[in-house]
Amino acid sequence: MQDISKHPIFQALQKIIHDAADVIMDIYQRADLGIEQKLDDSPVTAADLAAHKVILAGLQALTPDIPVLSEEGVVSFEERSGWPMLWIVDPLDGTKEFIKRNGEFSINIALVENGVPILGVVYLPTTSEGYVGVTESWKGLPVGAFKWQGNEFESIKLRDPRDPIIVMTSRSHGPALPADLKATLKLAYEQVRELPKGSSIKGCRIAEGIADLHLRRGPTSEWDTAAQQAIIEAAGGMLVTPTGQPFRYNQRKTLLNGHFFVSGPELAPSVIDWYKKQD
């Protein structure tokens, strides 16, 4: 199997995401982050827009035949519904964390084919940690999940659940782990600990075996989840709806996701059963 770190497609994506991180971190050091409000009242900064331009130019040069759907470059459903393959990009996932300057934000790039995320790359500019997941070989990329930091590169996978169960919770969007679900988990495990983080970091920590579960009951968009879903699935996990169905992308007029959770196959039945009791 080819070393993914030496594959030209990965190297090109790595350069694109590193270049985007450089412009983000340049703006991160400034006193004025260039904050504005979008029509949905969510914040956007100069870093979101600058990273979008870098990524868009890089992807168009790498794959001129594959269109790009970005949080900062939304396309009508009438146009994108005819795209069997597309890049889905969040140039700055965790804008609220960026504004708070807590370092918990990421860059997300996913390649989607017929609704399925087959390649995902997530990069954390403040820690220089990068994650890549390939669920279906594309242009010779090896299937699997990997992490890099600097020149170090390693394969990653989910861990088997064990005490204490680590639950990733949202830094800005809450709520915390429901008490009755926590009680259910404690029937099988003595300790359940909650660890708040922002952006796609939560899913990546599960993919690399640091945590076990993330429950998201607030709004997200397709660019928030596509890249991490590919990484999580490549690492042996699942990002699924409350009924256990994986998300599919660019299939609807809306780009908003419903509720979802991230876990491995061992914890998933307990979470699905908990959701059923909420109906």
From TrEMBL:
Pfam families, per the entry: Inositol_P
Matching CDD domains: CysQ (cd01638)
GO MF annotation terms: 3'(2'),5'-bisphosphate nucleotidase activity; magnesium ion binding
Residues annotated for Mg(2+) 2 binding in this entry: D90, D93, D224
EC number per UniProt: 3.1.3.7
Primary localisation category: membrane
GO terms, biological process: 3'-phosphoadenosine 5'-phosphosulfate metabolic process; sulfate assimilation
Hydrolase keyword on record: yes
The keyword Secreted is assigned to this record: no
UniProt keyword annotations, A-Z: Cell inner membrane, Cell membrane, Hydrolase, Magnesium, Membrane, Metal-binding
Record's catalysed reaction(s): adenosine 3',5'-bisphosphate + H2O = AMP + phosphate
UniProt membrane topology term: Peripheral membrane protein
Record-level GO cellular component terms: plasma membrane
Cofactor(s) this protein cannot do without: Mg(2+)
EC class of the enzyme, as a word: hydrolase
Sequence positions that bind Mg(2+) 1: E71, D90, L92, D224
Binding site for substrate: E71, L92, D93, G94, T95, D224
Signal peptide segment: none
Compartments reported by the entry: Cell inner membrane
Family from the record: Belongs to the inositol monophosphatase superfamily. CysQ family.
Function (record text): Converts adenosine-3',5'-bisphosphate (PAP) to AMP.
Name of the protein in question: 3'(2'),5'-bisphosphate nucleotidase CysQ
Source organism (scientific name): Marinomonas primoryensis
